TrEMBL record:
Domain AAA: 158-317
Keywords: ATP-binding, Nucleotide-binding
Keyword RNA-binding: no
Protein name, entry field: CtpF protein
Region named Disordered: 1-21
PANTHER family cross-referenced by the UniProt entry: SEPTUM SITE-DETERMINING PROTEIN MIND HOMOLOG, CHLOROPLASTIC, SEPTUM SITE-DETERMINING PROTEIN MIND HOMOLOG, CHLOROPLASTIC-RELATED
GO cellular-component term (any): cytoplasmic side of plasma membrane
Species this chain originates from: Afipia massiliensis
Amino acid sequence: MISYARQDQEDGTGSSAAEEHIAPAPRVSVQAFCETVETAAAVQSAGEDRRLDKAHLKIQMGGMAAAVEAYRTAPTPNVILLETEGRNDILSGLDQLATVCDAGTRVIVIGRVNDVVLYRELVRRGISDYVIAPVAPLDVVRSICGLFSVPEAKAVGRIIAVVGAKGGVGASTVAHNVAWAIARDLALDSVVADLDLAFGTAGLDYNQDPPQGIADAVFSPDRIDTAFVDRLLSKCTDHLSLLAAPASLDRVYDFGAEAFDSIFDTLRTTMPCIVLDVPHQWSGWTKRALVGADDILIVATPDLANLRNTKNMFDALKAARPNDRPPLYCINQAGVPKRPEINTSEFAKAIESQPIVTIPFEPQIFGAAANNGQMIAEIAANHRTSEMFLQIAQRLTGRGEAKKPRNSFLGPLLGKLRAK
């Protein structure tokens, strides 16, 4: 169908842009031929979006005529993006382009004629997408990425990155419990990737001790494929798997910025939901993992250092992801006895955003769960923090309701009535 610009996504008032899941484009070449400076600026901005990070984008002016002239002597790229004015310009220009265009090249047309008859004629001529001008950066991102999302194929997985604003704030505990809620309550197949290779705790929290894990993948980049990664996964529940960290110091874990790219790409093709347990550090690969995620959760405790770090991370990640919803954050370990704390309203005022939940300091239940290798929901299913983890899971996945209904005191009575 024709792609239309969505004004509510651009003014910040609508929630559709925040919730929309657009799968990243693969390594492809894209060449745009624009008529107007405004469209060229939108395409340039789209090229800076994280989802087009692997695409090689080149922008030229001149529209359809420039494209036809350029490809008389040069091979065509994977994707051609064309801006054109009137109806006649589109059809005649495409006929000329067809004589110089290589087989397999996909063409996106940006035009100002909003007509379904024209669109059908464009489809008949083999056009991949028609976008109504004026376009916003997200319209361009959506159109290019949509070319490589096959409708009948399994949906590309959503990556959720969880990171602490400071060490020791319980970000890993939150990540593991949220992943458990996604798998158990939302019945969504998920995997937790523990990226803290030296000191990761996911294996302990899930009571797993797999012989292999994420280190085997990151140190063998040439072997990474679906079958290889699948062998490294440890099954925790029917819907939850673990890509565990070795948590040993027998080697040094220094990585380049793109060290985990192939692992994440492979996980996307096999799992609907990937939860990254990102260690508290600011390096090339951790920043890349956070910027490349579909959603980010920052975990902080209510003190000054956490407030500063949360603000810095929030602003940096928001600037690096202009077409995504801002990072989410939660406050953890609130209400420690005799500890001076920054109250939630002051924290939210500084960040200019409300925390999605404030998790109270509950040392007994969290300590028992950690020592037993269990989740909070396993040892206290009706505890308030279990509900908070479910609430976080729903926000991060965009699913408003759990698939499995909660038990209530009316359950047995309703069951008897249904039996009758």
